[in-house]
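okkk here we go again. third time trying to get the 2-acetamido-2-deoxy-beta-D-glucopyranose bound version out, last two times i messed up the smiles copy paste (missing a bracket lol). double checked this time i swear
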Amino acid sequence: MFFLLLSFYFTIPAFAAGNSTSNSTHILLSCGTSETNIVDSNNLIWIGDGTTNYISKIASKTSQWPSQNPSVPTIPFNNARLFSSNYTYTFPLSPGRYFLRLYFYPANYSNLLASDSFMTVTVGPYTLLSNFSAWITVTALNYDYLIQEFSINVTSTTLNLTFAPSTKHPSAFAFINGIEIVSSPDIFSISTAYDADGNNKIFSYDEGMAFQTMYRLNVGGQSLARSQDSGNLYRSWDDDSNYIFGAAFGITFSNDPNVTIEYPPNIPQYIAPVSVYETARSMGPDPHINLQYNLTWILSVDAGFYYLLRFHFCEIQYPMTKPNQRVFFIYINNQTAQTQFDVIAYSGGIGKPVYRDYVVLTVGSGQMDMWVALYPDLSTKTSIMMQF
Ligand SMILES: *[C@@H]1O[C@H](CO)[C@@H](O)[C@H](O)[C@H]1NC(C)=O
Ligand SMILES: *[C@@H]1O[C@H](CO)[C@@H](O)[C@H](O)[C@H]1NC(C)=O
Ligand SMILES: *[C@@H]1O[C@H](CO)[C@@H](O)[C@H](O)[C@H]1NC(C)=O
Ligand SMILES: *[C@@H]1O[C@H](CO)[C@@H](O)[C@H](O)[C@H]1NC(C)=O
Ligand SMILES: *[C@@H]1O[C@H](CO)[C@@H](O)[C@H](O)[C@H]1NC(C)=O
Ligand SMILES: *[C@@H]1O[C@H](CO)[C@@H](O)[C@H](O)[C@H]1NC(C)=O
Ligand SMILES: *[C@@H]1O[C@H](CO)[C@@H](O)[C@H](O)[C@H]1NC(C)=O
Ligand SMILES: *[C@@H]1O[C@H](CO)[C@@H](O)[C@H](O)[C@H]1NC(C)=O
Ligand SMILES: *[C@@H]1O[C@H](CO)[C@@H](O)[C@H](O)[C@H]1NC(C)=O
Ligand SMILES: *[C@@H]1O[C@H](CO)[C@@H](O)[C@H](O)[C@H]1NC(C)=O
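finally!!
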């Protein structure tokens, strides 16, 4: 029996609205409005882009959403800025890493059809979204709205964020409902990421690398709202159960009452909130059954990109206190990314979080399923020492 906690990423203050200190920024921009002091359901304060200097001199239209959809939060989705030509927002920022979140609610704004929106979104030299249709994406996923999250490294004192309507599609337009920028510590290259082929080769980060978040899952626990995140990063964490393959859900559990989560000095609390480490999913208690299946998550991704998978672990229940009690394999896309993973051996004890990063290159194009699986390693039961 074993468990994991997993989050999942893919690669590629001067004017701060809301709360900021001298070196931390949190901009919450509601696009297409000149209102100020817009308070959302998380008690975060948004500001209309029309009241700021971030917007471009180029003319753009604004629109309120045409129909009230009760499943869509009004902030920031109740208005949009619409672009028929390239349009750039310019943010003065201190150099460093930031989370950039783009909020899209594809609707028939003004006399435009939601299905005609195709856009490319760039920050400086980096293309974040290419020929992107929020409408096609929400339709495929059966969502109402989308929040696309990126981690970017700003190396100068301005960030230019450009929305470019497609020139290939007739009457294409671009639009945006909300833009959020949050300063972030370096949460990726501070740790070592290994190639997912099990050779323990270290993946080398490019300093300027931009990441797009594909999934961030709180395994064995509930979804966590932005306000429940650590490090003032306002990340949301989703319930993993929608991604489990087949009927083998294993069991979910939370920490024993006498186990408190204690972050070791090398794991800052902003890596993940306590709630992520306090819940887990494992296979059931019967080793004979467990040997017959892999506990598997299936995550739909775009082929042709590098993906970074960050696995968060923490032993949270007695009697799991010693090495060799729970040892398992980690498979990514049917390759053995890790043999003999032993949470206690890595973390140093019960209640101590640890995380591990793997990078996998997916080949081909179009959508594909990323397979993430765990399997118990019983061969170590008799061994006295394990080496890592
Ligand atoms: C802000 O600056 C202080 C002092 O330079 C530093 O200790 C702290 O980590 C910085 N905070 C952030 C969020 O970058
Ligand atoms: C800003 O900080 C104050 C005091 O710490 C807090 O009461 C308020 O909720 C914060 N506002 C936002 C938008 O985070
Ligand atoms: C937009 O209008 C078209 C044509 O009237 C309609 O078929 C479509 O369902 C509308 N789309 C949305 C998202 O409301
Ligand atoms: C953009 O995407 C649409 C819908 O997937 C596709 O039909 C079109 O060929 C794409 N255009 C370009 C230039 O890639
Ligand atoms: C952003 O755009 C402005 C105006 O075009 C330009 O002066 C500035 O150099 C750009 N900044 C970056 C980082 O590209
Ligand atoms: C608009 O942006 C697109 C995508 O970045 C670029 O290819 C195009 O040259 C830009 N058009 C103009 C007129 O600047
Ligand atoms: C951001 O880029 C700068 C300059 O290329 C580099 O020195 C720095 O290490 C990078 N920071 C992160 C967090 O990637
Ligand atoms: C914590 O509680 C468990 C039972 O839930 C017990 O087995 C264990 O010995 C306790 N540990 C400590 C340190 O009290
Ligand atoms: C992994 O193996 C399963 C069958 O065991 C197969 O259906 C799936 O396509 C494979 N996934 C990848 C990414 O190779
Ligand atoms: C678990 O997944 C691995 C990698 O895809 C595969 O080799 C193995 O046969 C699977 N085991 C079971 C019991 O399905």
